[in-house]
Amino acid sequence: MNCNTLYQGENRRSIDPPPVVLLRLFERTPPGQYGSLEYEIPNYENVGTMGLLCAVDLIPDNDSDSGDSDRVHPFSFPGDVPVAESEIARLTTNVLIGSKVVQPHLIERNGQKNLMFVFSDLAVRNLGYFRLRYRFFDLFSTAVPGKDTTIQAECIGGRFKVFSTKDFPGLQVSTELTKVLGKSFNVGHRTDSKK
């Protein structure tokens, strides 16, 4: 991902390509002779999506010496230096712009219908290295009976850099997924890279 756009006099760097989270749901069979089996729901067209939400947070990633831009840190951050939740909240509120909570959409890709959370209008105001943290909620389900709605799943995306206008390397050719999303969402797609 690369980010850079000047928007109405405001320094606003759009995230490109737009972040997308694929929702996979599983059912578990009742315990039997061989224990409980888990399988993915075969048809997402019949899944009720009311109350399903995904929220995104912006996390600083100052591990600029790393050449591995695709690393994912599911439970820790680069260098095992934890980032305070208060810092994540500040960045998400003041630096991350756009729809930070979205509902899933049924999107057909490669002949298969999938539920996807599309963050089509996210932008970052500051320069530097970041990651996005995605949290999935089901407002009508509880992980523990009697407790408030909790996070059902969480993942941290790949590292990306927000460039200055001067250093911006240009936008890459759109991915196949971005082209599919362009049919339903306001996301630009390109057939060649441009600066």
Automatic annotation (TrEMBL):
<dbReference type="GO" id="GO:0005634">
    <property type="term" value="C:nucleus"/>
</dbReference>
<keyword id="KW-0539">Nucleus</keyword>
<keyword id="KW-0804">Transcription</keyword>
<dbReference type="Pfam" id="PF11754">
    <property type="entry name" value="Velvet"/>
</dbReference>
<dbReference type="InterPro" id="IPR037525">
    <property type="entry name" value="Velvet_dom"/>
</dbReference>
<protein>
    <recommendedName>
        <fullName>Velvet domain-containing protein</fullName>
    </recommendedName>
</protein>
<keyword id="KW-0805">Transcription regulation</keyword>
<feature type="domain" description="Velvet">
    <location>
        <begin position="1"/>
        <end position="192"/>
    </location>
</feature>
<dbReference type="InterPro" id="IPR038491">
    <property type="entry name" value="Velvet_dom_sf"/>
</dbReference>
<dbReference type="InterPro" id="IPR021740">
    <property type="entry name" value="Velvet"/>
</dbReference>
